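tl;dr need the bound structure. longer version: we got a ligand (iron/sulfur cluster) that a collaborator sent over and nobodys looked at where it sits. i said id run it. heres the input, straight from their email, havent touched it
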Amino acid sequence: MKYIIAFIRILFLALFLFLLVNGKVLLWLTLFAGSLIAALIFGRVYCGYVCPMNTLMIPVERLSKKLKLQTAKTPRWLRNGYFAWITLGISIVAMLLSKRLLHINLPILPFWLAASVLVTFRYKPEVFHNLICPFGALQRTFGRFARLSEKVNKDACVGCKLCEKVCPSNAIVVSSEDNKAGIDAALCHQCTNCSQVCPKSAIHFGK
Ligand code: SF4
Ligand code: SF4
């Protein structure tokens, strides 16, 4: 399963680079817009499978851990969660103004791609995914209404927390009250990392 997912991610990364090199990156934004509709049904599959930032952040996170650069801390000024909305607003205004005044398409996607890699060298991936990424802010808004998502069968869950450790977006948390895992669909990338490690096969994609 993980090899198939990696293959899909690399395919989309190659498509992104192809569009970028050929000056057609606006087409990617069309794909992103479509993914918001898809998120209402399938959850944030764009984040888990399509997003070039996520695809690059995965090896960067491994490298960061290996080099012991990663910190578990989150900058205090990011914690209230508003910053991703500010980055979204600034990105839209900058794109519109550069098009209108300078007649150029601002390379906003490559900018965020570089930012995601730099942030992930230092912080856990959930910091960029949940607190900085302007695209993630929109995906969160649509993803919370997903008809289908990864779900935990509470009867099967033994509260081992293995799923928590592999989640890139802090979407799955074992409750201290009942010692059972639960998934927040707004944060979940549907990446299946958690279901792949669950020793009780307690996690499935469904209604
Ligand atoms: S890995 Fe499975 S059994 Fe362990 S806490 Fe997560 S859902 Fe429960
Ligand atoms: S809850 Fe599971 S499927 Fe969702 S983002 Fe976390 S690891 Fe991936």
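gonna send this back to them w/ a short note. The pocket of iron/sulfur cluster (ligand 1) is lined by residues 152, 157-163, 174, 181, 198, 200, 202-203 (CB under 6 Å).
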